[in-house]
Fold this sequence. Notes:
Elements: H1 2-7, H2 18-32, H3 40-67, H4 74-89, H5 96-102, E1 120-124, E2 130-134, H6 145-188, H7 195-227
Antiparallel strand pairs: 1-2
Amino acid sequence: MAWISASEDSIRGSDQKMETFWATIVSEFQKHEPGTTRTLNALKGRWVDINREVDKFSGCMSSVLAVNASGKTDADFVEDALFLYVKRYGQRFEFMPSYLFLKDKPKCNTSLFDVNMPHKNNKTNDSGDNTTETASITPARPIGAKKAKRIASEVKMQEIQLSTTQSIANSLKRKNDLLEELNAIEVFGRPEVDPAMAKEYFDLLAKEKLEALKKKMRVAEIAGSDMD
């Protein structure tokens, strides 16, 4: 990712200024995505989204690892964390490649990536000691109360519309899956179907239902321990 490439640059390091840092990110992004155009603000916004959601998922991973259930593989822990993420935040985690790439990167938690934090520059005083100076940032002009209310109302309406659309889509998918399952049960239940094939199908169906039930129980267990 362009953010990591810029932060791990052995020449610039962590002493580069914020403006230089983000200019490097734009350059790295254009190098890796030559056919895509992104503004500096767009890249900053994208990083904020990725960093926020990856941080949430990392919290879910910490919760499932704390349970430390025996016999589970790394894939099981990831799957449990994905279920917990949905339960906590009401949506699927969409940044798994970013999480896998970022989880072992120490730079990801530094203020260098925080677009809202001042950058600290190290200076040497007359005695030769290093001192830390925090750059001042001019606060943005606050928006008016009416505009703030309007924006909040629009955001809330968009959230409601998105939630409703997602709920309808999930409901339609569940109905479609149920119809497919009922149709398969009807087909394999016919007398002319080979008994061995029918038995194999129903055995697999029972195993699938059992695994789904176990997953629900694991999520409930994790969520319960998370609230304690």
